[in-house]
Specification:
There is one protein chain. The chain is α/β, with parallel strands linked by helices. It has one domain: Rossmann fold (3-Layer(aba) Sandwich). It has four helices and ten strands; from the N terminus they run αβαβαββββαββββ. The strands form three sheets. The chain has a five-stranded parallel β-sheet with strand order 3-2-6-7-8. Strands 1-10-9 form a three-stranded antiparallel β-sheet. Strands 4-5 form a two-stranded antiparallel sheet. Strand 6, helix 4 and strand 7 form a beta-alpha-beta unit.
């Protein structure tokens, strides 16, 4: 299949200029909320890396950047009660610190809720959530981001750090939607 024909099937949902304007607004709000403090920004890979980069450059308070990539492991057994465990790719030292969890998109909120609870359990002074995209319609837990860019309902989004099934499209400067997951080419 021709990759160009797949790219042509994308529909721009949020233009690059609108994203950059909203990121600056979020950064201003975060800077006001954390005036006089240092933020430990903790981005979830892969979807949060571009949002994190633009966000921290716009912050007007000291920031320490860290990245985590949750890893999932299925519990042994084949029953309906199987559980996924979430592991940090490294252990962040955030005891007594103000943590800002940064995500590209929040879907069900299950992983995000777990991570926020885990960070609080590690002794963080505070834990807040910033996400560029919030898909509230997919939420399975009671979770509300402290800072968010845009509400979205589209199921398959790419661009500005979000990748397709085969992990392409992250370099697009805008957010685009497809009618279905983009196939591997």
């Amino acid at each position: 299949m021709n990759p160009t024909s797949e790219a042509e099937k994308l529909r721009i949902v949020i233009p690059a200029e609108q994203i950059q304007k909203r990121v600056r607004e979020i950064a201003r709000q975060i800077s006001d909320d954390y005036r006089g403090q240092t933020i430990h920004a903790l981005a979830l890979l892969e979807n949060g890396f571009i949002f994190m980069a633009d966000l921290v450059r716009a912050l007007e308070v000291p920031v320490i950047c860290q990245f985590i990539k949750p890893k999932y492991r299925k519990q042994p057994g084949n029953g309906p009660g199987d559980v996924l465990e979430i592991f940090f790719s490294h252990e962040p030292d955030i005891s007594g610190q103000h943590v800002l969890l940064v995500e590209g998109v929040v879907h069900s909120g299950v992983t995000t809720e777990f991570l926020m609870s885990d960070l609080r359990g590690r002794g963080a002074a505070s834990v807040k959530l910033a996400t560029l995209l919030d898909r509230q319609s997919a939420r399975r837990v009671q979770l509300q981001p402290d800072y968010f860019g845009f509400l979205v309902d589209e199921a398959f989004l790419v661009g500005y750090g979000l990748g397709s099934v085969e992990q392409t499209g992250r370099n697009l400067p805008h957010i685009a939607a497809a009618n279905r997951p983009l196939p591997v080419t």
